[in-house]
Structure formats: C-alpha cells, structure tokens
Design goal:
The protein is mostly helical. The protein has a domain at 139-149 and 242-334. It is 70% helix and 2% strand. The chain contains 13 helices and 2 strands; from the N terminus they run ααααααααααββααα. Strands 1-2 form a two-stranded antiparallel ribbon. Helix 1 crosses helix 6 and helix 6 packs antiparallel against helix 13. It is elongated, with a radius of gyration of 26 Å.
C-alpha cells in the first residue's frame, strides 16, 4: 500500500507541475485513473449482466443437484465456462476501486499536511500578509486542504496541525528556508518535539490578533452544541458550505442505485447490497466532511465519472443486444 501511495503522490506532483492548479489536477488525475481501469470495468459489467441472464439456469441446477454439492459445483463451473462468465469478475474492479480510494486518501492527506504546514509557517513569519493569497481555492472553497464546511476556518487551526508528522515539519520548513520564505528550518527529533512546538508556538500564534481575526465565528453562532455532545461554531470566513460532502453522498447513492438496477440482482443480493450502499453513504459523508476538500473533490468526481460510465455501458450493451437479436432474426428468416 505504501508503494501505491508513493506512486500516486509522484504522479499527482508531476501532473500538478503541468497544470499548476491542485483542484484541476485532482479532477484530471481522477478521470485518467478511471479511464485506465475502464476496460476492466467493462468486462466486469458484461460478466455481471450475463450472470443475471443465466440465473434461471443456475437455479435449475441448484434444485436438480441440491443433494450433491460436488456435482452441483461441477455443473456450475461448466455453465460458467459455456457462458463465458467469471463469478468473481465483478469483485476485482470493486477491490481495485477501494484500494485506489484509500491510497488517494493517504496521498491527499500527505499533500494537505504539507500545504497546511507551508501556510502556517509562511503566515507566522509574515503576519502582515493576507493569508487568503496563499491558499489553494476552488470555486466556493477558500482552502482546498481544509474541509468544505461552514464549521471550519480556511486557515489551518491547532487541531489540523497537531497531527502532522515531525518529518513533514522538518522537510517543508527546510524547503521554505532554502527559498527564503522563513529564516531557518525546523529540526524536530520526534513527535514530542512537535507537541511542544504546538503548545509553545502554534497555539499562542493562532490565538493572537493577527491570526484570530480570521477565526472569528458569526456573532451568536460560536461554541454551539448538539445535546451537549458535539460542539461546533459557524465562522464568519468559513472554508466552505458543505457542498462537496453532500454531493459525494448524493452521487454515491445515484451510482450505487444505478449499478444495482443494471445488475438485475435477486432479492438476497439486493438486501446485502442495500446494507453496503448505506455503509458507503455514511463513509462518503464522514470522510468528505471531516477531511480535506481535495479528497471530497476526488470522491465526487469519481462518482460522477462512474455514473456517466454506467450509463454509457448500459447504452452499449443495449445496442449489442439489439444487434445480436437482429442477426438472429435475419438468420432465422434466411
């Protein structure tokens, strides 16, 4: 998994060097990755559709050989070979998509950590600058590396910085020092050193007038709570408006509904798929609302692409079926 993370990081950096815009880089990169695995998805969808077509034959075999499991397995394998079906064909693209999803999560979290450290250190040593100018925005989102919600500021806060590894602080500060942005690089030896820096430097600066003015909540909407369990504030300069988390959930729902409809699942399969659908909906909302907007952008674009791809596949398969039916009709007539 670490190899895939490193590979994605390298590819995204290379593509960003060409496009020079992180939001567009993520969109283009997502589409390229999806195009790369499209042939596998096409084969998988074809296999899944053929599985639904031969379902009556499978049920007949299961009924006929219900008392002979070994014979049933042989007959099912023969049926799969005759029909050109791979029973596990539909699983491989799903596994690949999940692996890429988690790899992108870690890759974009790495980018977020690097960018947030860059933003904090730059503003710390240049408090007279406008911090909005150093953030990577996208449409309504002020900072692509913070969550797209009105409950988050566009500047990195203490909670966003305290979990950044010490080696990221060292590496990014060295780059900034070499380019003259800050006077000297940091040299943290371990996590304890970062914790001390957060306590002694980051927290006081975030609370200072220079920084705190960008973290002000809307009057009367600061330190709100739900049942005394969840505390939050709505900020005057929020990082976003919860658009991408909601879009990720809606597109996830449409994609999965479309996939289930195209697969013609039996009731048992549909039941388990419904459970998985709601699990994925919760995951999309949680991750896209809790982590950086860059990852939410990736998830949403990937879902939109999957919807368009599924519709295109359905049209393609319908066209193939019409051609096959026409050819069979002509053959019968002749």
């Amino acid at each position: 998994m670490s190899f895939l993370n490193s590979l994605l990081l390298t590819l995204i950096r290379a593509l960003h060097g060409i496009i020079n815009n992180y939001a567009l880089t993520i969109i283009v990169f997502t589409i390229l990755i999806k195009l790369l695995v499209m042939p596998l998805n096409l084969k998988s969808r074809r296999s899944t559709m053929r599985m639904s077509v031969v379902q009556p034959k499978m049920q007949a075999l299961q009924e006929k050989y219900k008392d002979d499991q070994e014979k049933l397995n042989q007959k099912l394998q023969q049926l799969y070979r005759d029909e050109g079906i791979s029973p596990m064909g539909g699983c491989l693209p799903m596994i690949i998509s999940m692996v890429i999803l988690f790899a992108m999560f870690y890759a974009l979290r790495t980018f977020a950590n690097e960018q947030l450290v860059t933003q904090f250190l730059t503003f710390y040593y240049h408090p007279d600058m406008d911090p909005r100018t150093m953030c990577d925005g996208f449409l309504w989102i002020r900072n692509l590396w913070m969550p797209d919600t009105p409950f988050t500021t566009f500047l990195p806060n203490v909670s966003a910085l305290q979990f950044v590894d010490f080696d990221v602080w060292n590496r990014i500060s060295a780059q900034l020092a070499s380019s003259g942005v800050i006077p000297e690089a940091l040299a943290f030896a371990d996590r304890a050193a970062v914790t001390a820096y957060i306590s002694d430097v980051v927290t006081p600066f975030v609370s200072s007038a220079a920084y705190a003015q960008y973290l002000a909540p809307v009057p009367g909407l600061g330190n709100l709570s739900i049942l005394g369990l969840f505390r939050f504030s709505i900020f005057s300069e929020p990082n976003g408006w919860f658009v991408l988390p909601l879009l990720s959930m809606v597109t996830q729902l449409v994609m999965q509904k479309l996939t289930m409809k195209s697969s013609n699942m039996d009731p048992a399969q549909a039941g388990s798929s419904n459970v998985m659908m709601y699990v994925m909906l919760f995951m999309s909302l949680y991750f896209c609302a809790s982590y950086n907007a860059a990852f939410a952008l990736y998830w949403t674009v990937a879902n939109v692409y999957a919807i368009v791809e599924q519709l295109a596949f359905n049209r393609y398969f319908a066209l193939q079926d019409r051609k096959a039916a026409k050819a069979e009709e002509v053959g019968i007539i002749s």
